[in-house]
Amino acid sequence: MDNSIHTHRFDQQGRQTQEQRRSALISAFALITAALFTIAISARDVFKPGTAWQHNASFVSLFVFLLLAFFAAALIWQGSQRNGVLLLLGSFLALLFATNLLLAELSLLLAVLAATLAIAISLITLSTRLTGILAIVSLVISILIVLIDSFLPISRPPALEQIRTTLPYLAGVIVFSYAVVLVYQQRRISLFLKFPLAILSATLLAIAALAIQSNRLLEQSLTEQENQTLLGIAHQAANSLDNFINSNLELVRTQAQLPDFSLHLTAAATGEVLDPSGKGTEEEVAEILPGFARRDPVFILSYALLDSKGNVILDTNSENTGRNESKFLHFSQPKEDGLPFVSDILYDEDNVRVIYFSAPVRSEQHEFVGVLRVKYSAAILQQIINQFNNVAGGHSTASLLDENLFFLADGADAALIGRTIESPTAELLTQLTEQKRLPPDADSLYINSLYMGAGDLRDGFRNFETTNVFISEIHLQETGEITSLDQIAVDKMASRPWFVAFSQTREVFLHPVAEQRRAIAATSIVIAIIAAAISITVTRWLTSPIERLSATADQISKGDLTARASIITEDEIGQLAETFNRMTEQLNQTLTGLEQRVADRTADLEMARQNTEKRARELQIIAEISSTITSEQKLDTLLPLVTRLVSESFDFYHVGIFMIDETRQFAALQAANSEGGKNMLLRGHKLGVGATGIVGYVAQHGEPRIALDVGTDAVFFNNPDLPNTRSEMALPLTSRRQTIGVLDVQSNKPGAFTENDVKTLGILADQVATAIENARLFAQTQQALAESQALYSQYVRESWGSLSQVEATVGYYHTLTGGQKLASPVESPEIRQVMNRGSITVLHADGNIESPTIIVPVKLRGQVIGTLNIKAPTKDRQWSQDEINLAEAVSERLSLALENARLFEETTRRAERERLVSDITTKIRGTNDPQEMIRTAVQELQQALGVTRVEIVPQKLSPPPDR
After folding, report:
1. Nearest-CA neighbor of 803 among 657, 888, 904, 887?
2. SS (H, E, C) 506-557
3. Ordered alpha helix ranges (H), 257-314
4. What parts of the chain have a pLDDT lower than 50?
5. Which of the 8 DSSP states describes residue 324?
6. Would the CA dihedral through 175, 179, 180, 184 be positive or negative?
7. What does each C-alpha distance from 31 to 62, 163, 496, 642 come to in angstroms?
8. Can you tell me the distance from the alpha carbon of 454 to that of 50, in angstroms, rounded to the nearest whole number?
9. Residue 476 in contact with residue 483, Cβ under 8 Å?
10. Cα–Cα dist 767/657, whole Å
11. 333-368 burial, b if ≥16 CB within 10 A, otherwise e?
């Protein structure tokens, strides 16, 4: 019988050994399959250019584990089951620990794998003693993985997208498979291990499921919110660039319609001489162009006027005068289609990146006579892009790329300008160089360094029509190493085929997920340690109540967190049951609390998103209105324009502008958009400053105010001209710390205005006040300029008129044989015509003219002070344009020389007069005798004036009437 029992026991041990060996082989095969699958899905991306070294290192560690797993399987196959399983589990735990050190966002999953798989495999393949040791080791490694990720953060890139997507499902399948095996073979597991495993498994799995779900929901919510924010800002940046281009196109088109340009170009083309007192003279045009350039002296490089052949006849940068730009698109395109033109970003002759705006200039007969061209520095685009940096939080930047995906501007790194995210062809590089969109001296090394090698970034732009938000790895320029994983939103400009990208590092906006992960990890560690300590301590005294606790734990492991253990005794088992119930209640409360916090957070994020979108729309409208009104310089046009734009943009019932008079006693209505407001304008509606009503209050105190017909402070609106008013808001128009007017906004909706509206529309009110002040200053400047010009012209006429009365010489006559002064003016109809018109007259040889003549007016600041009469030595002389231009140039310099000579002579005469007066005064003061003083004065005056007789006749003074 003993032999039979021994034989039965031996057979049972043999079957158990064979079963453990089979389980060990299955475990090795399962881990080898999982490793091969992971290698297969990650091999393609690991060897891509620019992949971080951490990805390469994790791939190498996975390959090493695969080799060790094959070796462990060979040991198990040969019968060395214990060594093979220890090698398999040791290398597996080392792989998980190394992966956590190399890659981010995997710690929780790796910790669960380390704890569950190591314990599960050891339970079905090793002895109880080794299983206990491996359970402790795996738990320690799991805790270290979570601690390193949560409290000792190391700069690590996230795992590859394929790994992050696939690994949770793969791990779930493996864990589930081993859970099934453990349940099937639970009869072989000792009670010493069953109880701790039940508690730890239930606790960790519940926490892991909760953590993964809550992290997923929070990450999804934050990502959706960030996508909307990035799209909104990208669209706003694109609109800002479009507004810049469109406003400049419209401005240059308007400027090109000035009559002075048309008259000047027409006269230059036909040789017509313009009236110096009329429009279109070179002096007037030369003063207009610098005025245009001064509106942006930083980025406007030059303003130029080109004739119909593309020659630069006037340019604020004098070095460009005389150049021919007929081969450039900014000349040929407006000439061809008659529309304003904006160029690509080009490199000029100094290798400076510029952008051209141009518009055709037409004559009164609508014929093309030239082009008005503006040369901007392309740095203006970088400035516009930089305005959107950090708008969506830290590390958020905007970029501008052209249709070939070359960087035109980048808010994060200006060194990216000129680089591309797509490998360009040789034909494209040649074409871009010929078009001056690349530097003309770019060598092959520079061209080869353009390509950034960012494949996912390139694909994101190319798939813009499908999805305009994508994730991209950001690489270092020099090494190609991945520096961050960014969320990128792309919008396309309307005015140019350019892309605007706005990016934010995922690590920044997903920071709440990391914080939540750390909190859950800390809670998990505490709960796991407490559970493990309690279970190990009380396992030795487990009896029958353990079975009931085991049943309760099984219910909880299946998801029934309402199950509770029955407390029958008050000993250690009863305390364990009570502790177990408290833990379950805590888990239930934690789950409920987390769900509630996620719901509350989601609602808060949605409300914040809506408020952000509303404010973004309002700020965009304000920017568009500001851009429109800043170009208007007439106050009579500006005020109605403001009321109309504000009413249309914000859908207000009535918008009015009150201006405070100089006495600061009344605020008079100056502009309104509604019919009632126009009636009030007709009868000169005005309000007393400080009188009843919010307009009078705001005019006196300079503070915004809101009036509503709802709430505790309800107001009754009784204005018969505005019967539908239900809400009103008045905003001060402040300039130089003084209230100059009031912007009155009324709505037919109750409770339409809030304090946020005051802040938002207050920005618009400041812009309107600035525009009003600018219009006033412009009008004052124009008036002062006209007065100063009139006074100077009068001074020139009077000065030269008095000089002609004093000087006997009226001119100079010179021939080939010599010259002489003229004592009397030379008169002829042609000379009188030139003196009256102020324009050059050219008489060519035509058989009827005795002497071909050029008569050029000598003008000083627009006033004709003489003529330059040039006669040819022969009767068949035909004057060339160069000779005519030379005569004009000499005339201009002659006028300046004559004016300098007149001023010098006038100064000399004044100095001589002062000297004579001083000498006479000195001689008179040399005596105290009145008779001697009179005699000296008479003698000195006679000598100084050159006269024969000087008399001093005394007069008898009558006494005052009161005497």
Report:
1. 904
2. HHHHCHHHHHHHHHHHHHHHHHHHHHHHHHHHHHHHCCHHHHHHHHHHHHHH
3. 259-270, 282-293
4. 1-12, 445, 476-482, 710, 712-713, 963
5. B
6. positive
7. 11, 16, 55, 73
8. 8
9. yes
10. 13
11. bbbeeeebbbbbbbbeeeeebbbbbbbbbbbeeeee
How does DSSP classify residue 925?
A: T
Give the per-residue pLDDT at 656. 87
Answer for the pair 200, 556: CB distance below 8 angstroms, yes or no.
no
Reduced to 3 states (helix: H, G, I; strand: E, B; else coil), residue 576 is helix
881, 844 contact by CB (below 8 A): no
d(CA 812, CA 821): 4
- pLDDT of 243 reads 94
C-alpha 301/C-alpha 346 separation (Å) is: 14
* Cα gap 938→235, rounded to integer Å: 91
Distances (CA, A) of 538 to 535, 556, 571, 587, 962: 6, 20, 11, 22, 135
Helices vs. strands in the chain: H and E counts, helices first: 25, 22
HSE, side-chain direction, 13 A CA sphere, residue 72? 27
Q: 764 in helix, strand or coil?
A: helix
Per-residue model confidence (pLDDT) at position 450: 57
**Count of residues for the chain?**
963
What are the pLDDT digits (tens) for 368-394? 999 999 999 999 999 998 988 888 777
Helix axes 107-125, 81-102, angle to 10 degrees: 180
Residue 504 has a pLDDT of: 82
CA distance 195 to 202: 11
Report residue 739 CA to chain centroid gap: 32
| Residue 382 and residue 354 in contact, taking contact as beta carbons nearer than 8 Å | no
CA distance 895 to 901: 10
Burial bucket for residue 908 (CB in 10 Å: 0-12, 13-18, 19+) = exposed
- Retrieve residue 730's tokens: 């008045």
Quote the tokens at residue 329: 């698109």
Helix (H, G, I), strand (E, B) or coil at 100: helix
pLDDT at residue 539, rounded to an integer = 63
The two tokens of residue 140 are 């320690």
From CA 122, how far away is CA 793, in angstroms rounded?
108
- The token duo for 208 is 């892991």
Buried b (16+ CB within 10 A) or exposed e, 391-418: bbeebbbbbbbbeebbbbbbbbeeebbb
Cα separation of 103 and 176, whole Å?
25
For the CA atoms of 845, 851, 852, 855, the dihedral, rounded to the nearest 10 degrees, stands at -150
784 exposure class (CB count in 10 Å sphere: 0-12, 13-18, 19+): exposed
Which amino acid belongs to residue 467? Answer: T
Tokens of 287: 């003063």
Of 306, 291, 288, 295, the closest CA to residue 247 belongs to 295
Closest CA to 744 of 648, 636, 647, 638: 647
CB-based contacts of 269: which residues, under 8 Å, 6+ apart? 307, 308, 369
The angle subtended at Cα 122 by Cα 117 and Cα 128, nearest 5°, is 140
Contact yes or no for 357/341 (Cβ under 8 A): yes
pLDDT of residue 374: 95
- DSSP lists the bridge partners of residue 858 as 866
Say if residues 375 and 293 touch (Cβ distance below 8 Å). Answer: no
Contact (Cβ atoms closer than 8 angstroms) between residue 868 and residue 890: yes
